[in-house]
Amino acid sequence: MPSPAVPRSGYRFVVLGLLCLLAMITYMDRAANGSAKAAIMAELNADLPEGSKKYDTEDFFLVLMAFQLAYAIFEVPSGWLGDTRGPRATLLRVVLWWTAFVALTGFTGTTLPGGVYVGFTALVVIQFLFGVGEAGAFPNIAKALYNWFPAADRGFAKSAIWMSARLMGGLTPLVWVLVVELGGLTWREAMWLFAASAAVWCGAFFLVFTNKPADHPKVSPEELARINAGRTGSTTAVTVPWGKLVRSRNLWAVCLMYVVTNFCWYFLMYNHPGAMKKEFADWNATPFGKILLALLSGAPLLVGMFGCFFGGVLSDRYIRRTGDRKWGRRRYGMIGYGLAGVCYVLAIGGKLAFPGNLWAFAVPLILMGFCNDLIMAPAWAVCQDIGGKYAATVSGAMNMFGNLVGAVSGIFVTGMIMKANTLDAGLPTERIADAGYVICFALYAVVYFAGVGLWLLIDATKPVVEEEKTG
Fold first, then answer.
1. Tell me, which fold does domain 11-229+240-455 have in CATH?
2. Cα dihedral value 270, 276, 281, 284, nearest 10
3. Of 77, 133, 208, 399, which sits 20 to 30 A from 115 (CA to CA)?
């Protein structure tokens, strides 16, 4: 006689959906800077005294560096808060914090009550404080997923997060065109609209989320048993073992690996949209051309979301089939970095062989976005694998080191190379920008190839605290 049906619940997927929305908002808010930078710099230049040195869009890399520096520095403190006080309170605090500074960005070039003018220096400070808030997002998302998902599904859950982030990051240039260039909103109003979306998310998160699934009334006993399968319960407060983390060679390998992505990838977020508009200005003459440029600007992130999906799903499938978690995480990281380096080599060839050709410039970068993102879910799943109950701190360490060394240096190097070649490249005017792109792309390719070797140093089966079982 068949057994009666057992009621099941899947509330963890509601939680995943809410966290995916947050990932989308984080990327929308920061990708907006790439779309708005020309308007922001024009606003600042309009208020400069006659004869003063004008800002150009290449100066904006200082604003981006301020954000990335804060984003890197505060990753570990935000992860520590998530591990010790729970992701619920921590995420609510950091999202409300950064929402305020996204809104303040919309006041750039104006005078606030009290006579405070929001100029370039104030913009740098605002973006630094914006970065302080966003630093808490992904480490605490990692902690929330560790609490709510079983080990066998972590790659899938992280792939969903990064798919969502890339989707919104890729769509932001198009959203910007639709709401600002075609929709009639000012760039300030667009910033305030983006800030409002984050505030609405906080309200929903407050009502829906609990730190642990056992505390939520909509989680069935069957779902709770599945989530907790293989875990070792602990009722003691979490105390992060800083010394063991610092001495973990596995964690250092993860941090060095993540430098590669941050050094090479941020060109797509901050430089690519502006490059498309500047290099192919003729396409801006019609609404269709504007929409096409916006889509191609965001396309590396849009196809990247499929890289996030396949990287996570294939990693989990390999582990379930073979039981080999070390190579299940490692192999897709190596494949992703190797192919991303090849794509940048192809981008150099396209730039040199077909100067001024829209598709030769755009297609290799679109493919690179996919290849790079094959590593995202495995990289963040490794942090959960080796971090266990310290998953937020370990994730924060990886993201901190990756952004501090990788993103900050990458933005600085890219900004300086592009600015130098704008000023004096020793080339005909129509080929000035080509030299900067070729130098940057060659550097990115070399760094990606080095990243393949770094994945060989990472072992997802070795926890940062050896005596712990990280289920």
1. Growth Hormone; Chain: A; (1.20.1250)
2. -90
3. 133
